[in-house]
Predict the structure.
Amino acid sequence: NFHTMLDVRYATSDGIVYAAFIHPLSPLHGGEFVSALQQAARAALTFGGTYTSSDLVFGAQPAQ
């Protein structure tokens, strides 16, 4: 789902699925922090459906 996810990826541990925000080892500032929360929340909400973290889509479109 790299075409529909931005900085968020799904991870699993002990049968639990997590939405993990991936960011370089630099501090998150203002808007970046808000974006991280929004992306992780949307990834959690769309799990099992569209698997998206935002309205942006890069590269090939997934089959409908």
Observations:
- The longest helix spans residues 30-46.
- The helical segments are 30-46.
- The chain has a mean pLDDT of 81.
